[in-house]
Design goal:
The complex is a heterodimer.
Chain A lengths: L26 E6 L2 H11 L7 E6 L8 H6 L4 E4 L3 H14 L5 E6 L1 H13 L8 E4 L5 E5 L5 E5 L1 E2 L1 E2 L6 E9 L4 E6 L12 E2 L3
Parallel strand pairs in A: 1-2, 1-4, 2-3, 4-5, 6-11
Antiparallel strand pairs in A: 6-7, 8-12, 9-10, 10-11
Chain B lengths: L13 E11 L4 E8 L13 E8 L2 E8 L10 E6 L7 H8 L5 E5 L13 E7 L4 H12 L4 E7 L8 H8 L3 E5 L8 H6 L5 E6 L2 H13 L7 E4 L10 E5 L4 E5 L5 H7 L18 E11 L7 H6 L2 E2 L5 E9 L2
Parallel strand pairs in B: 7-8, 7-10, 8-9, 10-11, 12-16
Antiparallel strand pairs in B: 1-2, 1-6, 2-5, 3-4, 3-6, 12-13, 14-15, 14-16
The chains are: A alpha/beta, B alpha/beta.
FE2/S2 (inorganic) cluster (FES) binds next to loops of chain B.
């Protein structure tokens, strides 16, 4: 699958790389949907990865398209779950039992990687030591700067805040603490003057 | 111009102090306690901070950085420990041989280039020899805040491991001491592999020890941002060389036993600095022109910057060649 190249933007906007095997140490791999491919590539590049890996995978709308591929890697542990919320306590438990040296690799959508990074940072791993690889949807997790509500899976700009109903402009300004981009009211000066929504990166 | 006055606007602010106590700890290390000349308290500091001490050695001013090793909230006095270096440029020998109780000296306000990362779940200290000093302040700070820590400290022998006994007495099993003369060494791989997530590692000691520990930490897949080290380099002697200071319109001679920074100061030119040991980046100076070779020794510039011939850190680096013109 060809990878989406995010155009260059402000410094706040996260950039993602390609997962690479590191030492013969424990790995925590968290992925959603097409993010399974990044795990597969990682485990193929480093034969030692799978036997050291705890994989937490959320297929979401891809169903069982990738699950067989992950099972075939024969990882130390594989959890396939219905939602991030369902997987959260498992992520937290893996982190609380882990020792220094654990490698964390996150792949898939920005929302998933961002939310998992919140847990990983809280456990004390510097974000600079975490590997990321984006794949799949380019939809964003957005915070309304007015009501602070989060709207998941935003794929158009502007969009309507799912909490307060304001028309929000999609900014590249990102918060690692919230794992969300900032959405700012687009028609504050001239209420009702809202441009037609366009698909992000279309 | 009186060459002993320090040009203004450089370094941290200075405080006049009086030597309160001089306490030899063993054959190599002596502790110096200071109080402020104006009777006021010192500023508080954070564990790991250092001060630059100003020594009036005849008509020469020596400025050496030393870690503050007292309890950061005990502001009635500051303490440093000085290891005598018979091969060095003379600062530590001056402290050992000439400084007496009652002397007036000057200390800079504290500067911290080696502070605790307070997000750490646990702090692991690895010290070699006189590298123990910054950890004394850090430990005092963590004891107050109930921080979790452990210390691994190696010294040449029981007699030369300054503060080892006191640390063991006060903190018991958090303190692990290793004596070289009994062939005791830190099991670094065991230490690194057993630590809870969120631990931070701090190393201070001889250069060889620091690079050994940093190398083992990288091999054990520790994040580089979880590993901290401090090494003050002392400027090294070398061939004298000439430098043109463009902004000040002066040509100066750097003597064999002084640093480029000291020569610039001697010429009465205000040059920025903080650590005087190649660590803080404050003295970074632009090179306008050169014909010769740099002897870069700092821990600040990237390799590419060293190779570029466009920057020099005058506190520790030298030059050999025909022409060197600095934007100073
Ligand atoms: S004064 Fe700190 S690097 Fe030169």
């Amino acid at each position: 699958m060809s990878k989406f190249q995010f155009p260059e933007s402000i410094k706040s906007r996260p950039v993602y790389g390609t997962l690479e095997p590191r030492g013969d140490v424990a790995y925590l791999l968290v992925a959603d949907a097409e993010g399974a491919e990044a795990i597969y590539d990682l485990a193929t590049a480093g034969a030692h990865v799978a036997r050291n890996a705890h994989i937490i995978y959320l297929p979401n709308e891809t169903g069982d398209k990738y699950t067989g591929m992950l099972q075939a890697l024969n990882p130390a542990q594989l959890y396939i779950g219905p939602s991030y919320e369902a997987a959260l306590s498992r992520i937290q438990r893996v982190l609380s039992n882990a020792r220094m040296g654990l490698q964390v690799c996150l792949s898939g959508t920005e929302g998933l990687m961002g939310k998992a990074l919140i847990e990983v940072s809280a456990a004390g791993i510097p974000h600079s030591a975490v590997q990321f690889e984006h794949s799949g949807s380019v939809a964003r997790r957005m915070q309304c700067v007015h009501c602070k509500g989060i709207t998941e899976n935003v794929s158009t700009d502007p969009f309507v805040c799912s909490h307060c109903g304001l028309n929000l402009f999609v900014r590249d300004h990102y918060s690692r603490r919230l794992a969300a981009f900032q959405g700012v009211c687009i028609d504050a000066e001239d209420p009702g003057n809202v441009p037609d929504p366009v698909e992000l990166y279309s | 111009m009186n060459t002993t006055t320090k040009p203004s606007g450089s370094g941290a602010q200075k405080m006049d102090v009086i030597v309160e106590a001089v306490t030899p700890l063993n054959d190599l290390v002596t502790r110096f306690d200071f109080k402020r000349a104006n009777g006021e308290d010192f500023p508080t500091f954070s564990g790991g901070a250092h001060t630059v001490i100003e020594m009036q050695d005849g008509d020469r001013v020596r400025l050496n950085p030393y870690s503050l090793m007292s309890d950061p909230v005990q502001t009635a006095s500051y303490s440093i420990s000085v290891r005598r270096d018979d091969e060095g440029r003379g600062g530590s020998l001056f402290m050992h041989n000439h400084v007496k109780v009652g002397d007036r000296m000057r200390l800079s306000t504290p500067v911290n280039l080696f502070c605790l990362d307070l997000r750490a779940k646990k702090h692991i200290f690895v010290a070699g020899g006189i590298g123990i000093t910054p950890f004394l302040g850090m430990i005092a700070q963590l004891e107050r805040t109930q921080g979790r820590w452990e210390l691994h400290y190696s010294g040449r022998s029981r007699a030369l491991a300054s503060y080892a006994e006191q640390l063991t007495r006060q903190h018991g099993s958090k303190v692990h001491i290793y004596f070289d003369d009994q062939s005791q060494t830190i099991d670094i791989d065991g230490l690194l592999s057993g630590q809870p997530l969120g631990s931070h590692l701090y190393v201070c000691g001889p250069a060889g020890m620091i690079s050994w520990v940093l190398g083992r930490a990288a091999d054990s897949a520790w994040p580089s941002d979880s590993v901290h080290s401090e090494e003050f380099l002392a400027p090294q002697s070398g061939e004298p060389f000439q430098v043109r200071l463009c902004q000040s319109d002066k040509t100066i001679e750097v003597g064999a036993h002084e640093s480029l920074l000291e020569a610039i100061e001697r010429a009465g030119v205000a040059a920025p600095y903080l650590c005087r040991g190649g660590a803080c980046g404050q003295c970074e100076t632009t090179v306008l022109e050169y014909d010769g070779e740099f002897q870069h020794r700092d821990h600040w510039l990237e390799d590419a910057e060293h190779a570029s011939g466009k920057k020099i850190m005058p506190c520790v680096s030298r030059f050999v060649g025909k022409t060197l013109v600095l934007d100073r």
